[in-house]
Amino acid sequence: ITLDNIQADLHMHTTWSDGKLSVQQMAEEAIKRGRKYIVITDHSRSLGIANGLSIEQLLEQQEEVRTVNDNFGNDFHVFHGTEMDINADGSLDYPDEVLEQLDFVIASLHVSLRQDRTQITQRLLNAIKNPHVDLIGHPRAQLIPSREPVDADMDAVFEAAAEHNTALEINANPHRLDLEAQYARRAVEMGIYLSINTDAHSAEDMDLMHYGITTARRGWVEAQNVINTWTVEKFMTWLKQR
């Protein structure tokens, strides 16, 4: 895989939560970088520190995303999603009736990261098994160099992701680089799709994509294994078939 293969960024934040740019501005910056589509994935309601969106705010944001998308016509597509917290008790931060209204759902660990192996693993499995969750964001929740990865049973995580056709993220931010190369390679060997995203909170963050590409290349990842190398039509077909 190379940077030129990347068609989209599926994980980014706007001023609706803790980002620096509006939906429109993020779209414009993505176009400058050659992207063909993006997903707006602001934080969910439980993550107060990141100004997470209530259900009402999420649905209000959806109207704005749809308007911005319509303004671009067929040249560029803006999807509406969320980066939803996997709560400490294993529940997901939005109910299914809300998730089914979204184009794309990322589920991520942000809190209670020092839980024991059984608890952390079960939280990830709960998210993977939910039919509305498309991607697990930064699956091991590490922050380089300050925070070690969670103590999850990655064998169980990979098996569940393969069974439920849930993609796993390579987060390109150099403080994350998660999944790491050896896990990315294993995912590919098991037929699990990956997504390389910048987790952008600003225009500058979109330029971090090459770090994720480098991590993927170390894991022998090919473009066909990465959902955001696909055309928008293929991406939409995959979402419908999941």
What oligomeric state do these chains adopt?
Answer: single chain
Task: Strand order, main sheet: write it out.
Answer: 1-2-3-4-5-6-7
Total helical segments: 8
Low-confidence stretches: none
User: From the helix content, strand content and strand pairing, which structural class follows?
Assistant: alpha/beta
Gyration radius (Cα, Å) is 16 Å
Count of beta strands: 7
What does this molecule look like?
The protein is α/β, with parallel strands linked by helices and 242 residues long. The chain has helices spanning 23-32, 55-72, 96-99, 117-129, 154-164, 181-189, 209-218, 232-241; strands at 8-9, 37-40, 77-85, 104-108, 135-137, 167-171, 194-197. The chain is globular and about 45 Å long. The protein starts with 7 loop residues before the first strand and ends with a helix.
